[in-house]
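step 3/5: co-fold with beta-D-glucopyranose
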Amino acid sequence: MTTPSVPSGVFGVDIGGSGIKGAPVDLDRGALAEPRHKVLTPHPASPEAVVAAVREVVEHFEHRGPVGLTFPGVVVDGHTRTAANVDQGWLGLDAEGLFREALDSPAVLLNDADAAGLAEAAHGAGRDQGGVMLVLTFGTGIGSALFVDGALVPNTELGHLELRGKDAERRASAGARERHQLTWAEWAVRVDEYLDLVERLFSPQLVIIGGGVSRKHEKFLPLLKERSARVVPAELRNDAGIVGAAMAAAKYSR
Ligand code: BGC
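step 4/5: write tokens
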């Protein structure tokens, strides 16, 4: 009898507000090595419940080896520091340590937009881009990853810049478009306002638009006004978080 082979290598998990998705990643190609497995994010998304869901995703592949994980908030030295759209139980937690223990594997945890940014910078729309580049993910919130000559400045949290007296992501995220039932044209005006603000602050040469809504980029990117920065859709779309998490695991996991 042959024993089933246990795949080894690097694994990425993207923890989002609605789903927790993971897959082994082919780091050379910057792509998923197998179709991803997704489970629904538990509600409430308490640390214990999310850790259990992540285990289920990783065990689905019988993966052994380093695991990279994303988190939709600030992560410093593996500790989750903010929780804008997730359960408050994450605040101040050594979440990376929790995953390392639960998975019995080396693990690294990083901000979700930073992970997507790493993947786009290495394998997607940001390849070979020098100078200042921004990856903005439009979903429930707005995530940001800032690169200077290819180096990531982590946890920039530009979704929380103030726009018309509010948290920018409350006005201009893809979630806000759905909540306020905006047409693509109405939403594009808000996205333009937001891009004006980040452009004034950072003068990026390139802005990459990611997040779930980037699948529908042809509906709104042509409606945006001309600006100094080039604005392009993300290339890895919804896989960027998984790929970037695995890239970080290969490099930094403990
Ligand atoms: C969080 C960020 C996150 C973004 C996208 C924001 O509300 O503060 O950390 O990257 O949502 O999930």
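step 5/5: annotate
The chain has a mean pLDDT of 94.
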